[in-house]
Design goal:
Helix content: 25-40%
Largest sheet: 7 strands, antiparallel
CATH topology: Small Protein B, Chain: A
Radius of gyration: 18 Å
Order of helices and strands: EHEHEEEEEHEEH
Structural class: alpha+beta
Shape: globular
Distance between the termini: 47 Å
């Protein structure tokens, strides 16, 4: 699967911050997006929302569902549908690996980040497992404790 992209040639469009709170992230990878012209123009303007998006495998192809890309303002009658299903571009063997992983109980594919890499629209997908309520509370308590330690350390160094 794809590795982490270089930071210098990446322009982030949208992030799914809620995903890190709601899910345990098991594995991440990069996939291309098949887009229309007005979708690309709208993405370059930063008009996308990953909030409810997820990926599904149908007939050997990977599709991104519920990714909202706002219609391009200067678009005409050929403008795109905001919530249409978009095909994700991966090699066939990569899709087969994913199918094997997500058929395990409770696993799903969620986009974490949408970005341009060297001019091409990419999405960072993650194989995730849903967190229980107590896991979320534990994560919040841990984050609060770390924040409190940082404050105490900064007061000590004054």
């Amino acid at each position: 699967m794809g590795g982490k992209p270089d930071v210098g040639d990446v322009k982030t469009i949208a992030q799914n911050r809620k995903a890190r709170h709601l899910y345990h992230i098991l594995d991440t990878f990069e996939a291309g997006l098949q887009l229309t012209g007005t979708e690309v123009k709208s993405l370059r303007a930063g008009k996308a929302n990953l909030g409810d998006a997820y990926a599904v495998v149908e007939r050997g192809e990977l599709w991104l569902v519920n990714l909202h890309i706002t219609p391009y303002e200067q678009g005409n009658r050929f403008n795109h549908e905001p919530l249409r299903r978009r095909k994700l571009l991966l090699h066939h063997r990569e899709i087969q690996k994913l199918v094997g992983k997500i058929q395990e109980k409770g696993l799903t594919l969620v986009p974490l980040r949408l970005y341009f890499r060297r001019g091409w629209a990419k999405v960072e997908l993650a194989i995730v497992k849903g967190k229980k309520a107590f896991d979320k509370r534990r994560d919040l308590a841990k984050r609060d404790a770390e924040r409190e330690m940082e404050r105490a350390m900064s007061r000590k160094h004054r």
